[in-house]
Sequence to fold (448 residues):
Amino acid sequence: MKTFPQYQAVTSGEPGSWAAAARLVRRTGFGGTGAAIDAVVAMGTPRYLAMTLAADPDRDVGAIATPAPTFEPIVPLGKAAGTAARKSYNHQLQGQLQELTGWWVRRMVAVEQPFGEKLTFCWHDHFATSATKVRRAGWMLAQNQKLRTMGRGDFRPLALAMLTDAAMLFWLDGQQNTAGAPNENLSREFMELFALGHGDGYTEQDVREGARALTGWRISADGSTMLRPQLHDDGSKTLLGVTGNLDDVGYCDAILARPASPSYLATRMYGQLVSDHAPTLAVVNACVAGYGSTRSVTGMLSTMLGSADFTAAAGTQVINPVEWLIGAVRALKVPVPDQAAALKLIAVLRGLGQIPFYPPNVSGWPSGAAWLSTAAADLRMSTAAALVKRADLDPVGSVAAAGRVDAVAHLLGVPAWSARTAAVLKGVVSDPAQLVTIALNTPEYLTN
Fold:
């Protein structure tokens, strides 16, 4: 009988090294496989975490194999454009956005070290910007790459880049913000959702002064952005107690200097990577210490993911549809060779309510049990059954029936089944395809 020497089913309630590694692998990626978790157990979770945080996502072999598309700017229509021209214009925009979304889905599947894409997706949810309004694939792609390359290290360059990013400016009406007609949308959302938290230490006057600091930015057709001095309010402003001729840099620095900013960011990232439950004050303080005076996202994440609280929070987060689908495809080694295959996955994500590049609003996607509706369960089950037909089931099928419940746990990176789940799985061990289909829809796989 095939055995799994490093796999340790959790039977005592206390997670062992395999369970700890499984949680780390699954939370820093899209699902996890037994082979990947065995490797982490062998090297030790501290070494794996250090390697993961240091890896360059653009140098990943799978990323190189899925190069980003290029998009030619589509010339905007004039007011006199007819129906046919408008139809063609919309068709071109939609085609580019489909190509963009398909590319990212394929890259998520292809990468060998998935944390780069996982963290990019977390930042995409944090700085939520939707193609529903932006509609320019090139602008969305440029923002996506900024999130990927600037998502670690000092938080300041990433925050500043988002304030002058074309997709963000268009999404939050920054291109309408002039000295003569200040628009507060970007100033307000940056404080409320991106850097400080709702109503945490700022006033309506701060929002207005912040909007003045962000005036004058414009977007070119190619997605580059520039400050038009004649549209910028160069008068003195007072923002969060800082007075001067503040611009985007002054705005950003005044906000990031607030004591609430590191703790807010730590709480948001904890919700993305650790648990649907709020972190304790001790956890937040430890993460803020890791962030430090250099505003190190890497230091914050290293503290967060390397702590005993991270392992203790196992089972407290419902995985979202992207994590579920990409994780299943990766674990089952289902090929996604081209755009047509990617579009089928996007159709599933549409049914489950989470398509990359299309968050529902500036707050991002919901978390927690919102994903566990009856309709979603039906779609997950039918999708899992379809994936299994194209999957490599040898890791389960080659094992004797008596060992297949452990085998499917090992395959999907699940440390333990509840007694109820195990009983259900034991009832279908004679059919590996059905066994894997059900396992992908168990509470133990849907939470982490």
Summary: The two ends are 29 Å apart (CA to CA). The chain is about 55% helix and 5% strand. The mean pLDDT is 94.
